Amino acid sequence: MVIELLKAFLFGVVEGITEWLPISSTGHMILLDQFVKLDVSKDFYSMFEVVIQLGAILAVVLIYWSKIWPFHTPQHSAKNATGIWRYVDKDIMIMWVKIFIACLPAGIIGVAFNDTFERLFYNPTCVALALIIFGIAFIWIEDIHKNHQPKITSIAELSYYTVVLIGFFQLIAAVFPGTSRSGATIVGALLLGVSRTVATEFTFFLAIPVMFGAALFKLLKFGLAFTPMELWILAVGMITAFVTSIIAIKFLMQYIKKHTFKAFGWYRIILGILVILYFWIIK
């Protein structure tokens, strides 16, 4: 039992770090699963690797609570606010509308064809190619944007047209594992002239409904008939992902204030090559 909980702890650490850094949690989970096998059923593991993301997303909720919770008491309302706006922050509500719109492509297409995408693309070759291609994309985008000032420097400046386009970049990650949900949306946002900080924060906020929805979908598909051991494994994974995510998110937000995403691009390329070497040559 202790060994399995230690494995769950390790999975939680990897999930918490790789979910927010644009380096693909899926790619890392596939590699980790090759060397650290949880002694659980295939169905449980398929559910586990998605549901532990709830721990990661709770870290975003905790860190950014003041930016994402739209309801407040009248004494904290905006000056001269009347009616419903005495209790609701208008800017945050508009932001949630934009988040909902951006989630539609992945929400509709991703859920409808989830099993098909997993069957066709959930394999080491596709993951490795996605890691490499988007790694190159990060390096290329940073090079062409060098010395250019971003056009969009706050979430409030994101137009509905822009968030729809970001949503389609998020769909790419839903289709091709290894792309990285955060990586795809950040690449899309940077291409559209969004600053690194805004692109990253909006990516974090997009993850809230997407990951809650994906976790709920997997839970309902698996059912709630857990054994005590399965509950312990799930709890350890989620709690570890939560704590690790707090550290990873704070690190990333500090890092991008002074650095570009190029280091993550090179890391993705190297990891993609290692995945290909391992599964095509070594294994």
TrEMBL record:
Record localization: Cell membrane
GO molecular function, one term: undecaprenyl-diphosphatase activity
EC id: 3.6.1.27
Entry-linked Pfam families: BacA
GO cellular component: plasma membrane
Xref: InterPro entries: UppP (IPR003824)
Coiled coil (UniProt feature): none
Name of this protein: Undecaprenyl-diphosphatase
Organism listed in the record: Ligilactobacillus apodemi DSM 16634 = JCM 16172
Lineage: Bacteria, Bacillati, Bacillota, Bacilli, Lactobacillales
Gene of this entry: uppP
